[in-house]
Design a protein that fits this description.
By secondary structure, the protein is an alpha/beta fold. The strands form three sheets. Strands 8-7-6-9-10-11-12 form a seven-stranded parallel beta sheet, with helices on both faces. The two termini are 21 Å apart. It contains 14 helices and 14 strands.
Amino acid sequence: MRILLADAFPDASRAELAQRGHDCRYEPTVTTEDLPQMVPGCEALVVRSTRVPAAVLAAADSLRLIVRAGSGTNTIDCAEAARRGVYVCNVPGRNAAAVAELALGLLLAIDRRIPDNVTDLRQGRWNKKLYSQARGIQGRAIGILGLGSIGLAFAHRAAAFGADIYAVAKANRDPATLDAAQAAGITFLDSAATLAATCDVLSVHVPGGESTRGLVSQDLLAQMQPGAILLNTSRGDVVDEAALIEAMDSKGVRAGLDVFQEEPAAGTGAIDSTLARHPNVYGTHHIGASTAQAQQAVADGVVEIVEQFGAGTLLHCVNRPLESATAPVDSVT
């Protein structure tokens, strides 16, 4: 297949695709605005952060497959792709460990005020008295919103620190998730509001999209305890940013955030975010999945999807109903 790789992709995985007979065009710095000129003639498009709106799909004359090199597909117009007969597949779970590690790192950084320690030391200030004031993670009540692969990975890591882990009970959880939750010692509560009121740390691991936009709302933040910690390594629009700022100002809520509503689409640029500048926020640059281990694991998943597609099978298709994780391509209408 003729494949356009429109984001960074490991050299070894590009070589593997070429060895398997695919014609790969590598454009790691391409922008969404550039894609309509590049996508004609391509049968497959692989993206990570680059958005794929309807205008790109309208310009694609040969496209059959879009692979999101990650789990979330909210940057792709999946409905328009389906209308045009283009399958959208993702690579779920492969970067779970990396995102969970960052979420835990943000929690530790907030609790021990690690960035402030570093800043003061670099400026010649010694303040052991101030920085000795920390609660620690052991015995903390940590609530998790979203028990997918990332939420479960975070739960296991937080439990290893001796935290008590909670999540929201759902009637339709699959047996594998329930088994993993039991292994992590997760206690289920009846609602997100109860979770926020019970826990002094709330970590968000839900997919982006209409169903989760504004999930961390003013009402939910009102249930959080004074001085509680919010972690968000999912999508920026999951959090009502104005309501979070109000909660930080009114009752000292602290936040560890890897994502923001107004973050630049490119790898570098300027960001004008009132939330990111707030003194109660420890922020990172949407780097949750950006470890070498995670990127290679995701790339391996991309290669697998491309190969299976060529063999007539879809893996992890998100823009049509599926009875299982795989289905024959020629059975799709």
